[in-house]
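diguanylate cyclase
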Amino acid sequence: MNILKSWIERKIETGRFQQRGDVLLFALSRGAITSFAAVGLNHFIYFVLAPAGIIKVPVPSSPVADAFVTLLVSGPISFLAFAMMGQAIHSLALSRDSFERLSRIDPLTGLLNRRAFVEKIEQTKTPYLLVLFDIDRFKSINDRFGHPVGDWVLVDVARLLEEHFSATGYVARLGGEEFGVVICDMPRAAALEQVDLFRAGLANRLFERDDLSFVVTISGGVAEANGTLAYSVLLNSADRALYIAKAAGRNRIVEADELSGPGLGEYLANLPTEQRSA
């Protein structure tokens, strides 16, 4: 049983049984092998075991006719058996792929989820910018208009993010109203320009639904991967920059590199309490 399980897992992992044609080819090939094996086993019994007295069976008068009958009977049966087995493996492969996809996709927005986002970052070998976006005062949107409208805003912002950044990187919903963006293979200045273009474009966009009309803004924190920082360190830097963007009044982008300047702590300490809330 363990051998069969391992064999099925290997076939699925190597991409076999993804198409119905794979099932048909599997059933035809295995059915043919099984049928000819049955013919060979019959002849082994007739001409080896029977003469040796191990098994007492009459030798057919026409071995060729016997082989033909064996093929005629075992062929369709073997084909159907392996076809059913192949179909079961095919369904298992599709279910596994579907589960794997769903485990990596945010169900509301269709973007990558946090797990998939981290995995892609770990696989990214080229320099990149990590941007953490957070919709400003999202709680007030839910409180004023209800959670269905809040979900609609999340879906629409996700769509806009993907349209804006998918050509140069990838986008994820990290949780709540927070999104992550990675921009690859683009000069820093150009990437930062794209980030601020998105921020400004969103702020100038009117969200309209039914009789509602309102503006949504977004804040962002940016950190640059230089090939030496671990993802966790990079994430903390971007998250701190996002916090500063929120604390500084929202609807702005802050780079992590800007946070080492003098007077930052005093500046934050003097901010009104309401400006520090998300």
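thats it. The chain has two domains: 2-102, 114-276. Residues 2-102 form one domain. bye
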